[in-house]
Amino acid sequence: MCMVLKVQIPDNRVISYHVMEGTGKYRRKLVKRILAGVLVILGASFIAYGDDASKRNIVIRKGFRGSNTYLIVCKGFPKEGAEGLQRRETAREAALLNAQMIARDIFNDTVDPVRCGLAKKFVVYDEYVVVYYELTKKNLKKRQRTTGKGK
């Protein structure tokens, strides 16, 4: 089957387009092929992103320094395409956020990593920034999560 689509353009000419109509079965196959292609592209992009992220070991060191203090040393990487000062500052912010998220995973909800934590030192390297993040709270050792991420 063929369908003719006629379009009139501003100078009063008519352009005809011949459009092939497919059966429902043909359309379904076409949609499936397109979706399969999109899924392959998405899968490849996730795999490529996963490989890049796996090369980046974020945590350098973490552990208790007494029963009330916990130290996290971790990396932060700059935003893609950032240059100069912006590159350093985005890496610094990423390092700080990484430390806070690590602390949130380690301790229960009675410990607020932003209020209890303090960035003691930042060390800037060419490709990343390292933060020394210290959490201090009374009986911090007893406030660890017992199983995974809590409610």
What would you note in describing this structure?
The protein is α+β, with helices and mostly antiparallel strands. It has 2 domains: 53 residues; 85 residues. The chain is 38% helix and 29% strand. It has 3 helices and 6 strands, in the order ββαββααββ. It has a 4-stranded antiparallel β-sheet with strand order 3-4-6-5. A hairpin with a 5-residue loop joins β1 and β2. The N and C termini lie far apart (60 Å). The model has no long low-confidence stretch (mean pLDDT 78).
Share of helical residues: 25-40%
Strand order of the largest sheet: 3-4-6-5
Largest sheet: 4 strands, antiparallel
Q: Low-confidence runs (pLDDT<50, min 5 residues)?
A: none
Helical stretch count? 3
Taken as a percent bin, the fraction of beta residues is 25-35%
**Secondary-structure-derived class:** alpha+beta
Overall mean pLDDT stands at 78
Q: How many β-strand runs?
A: 6
| End-to-end gap | 60 Å
Write down the domain tally: 2
Question: What is the general shape?
Answer: elongated
| H/E element order | EEHEEHHEE
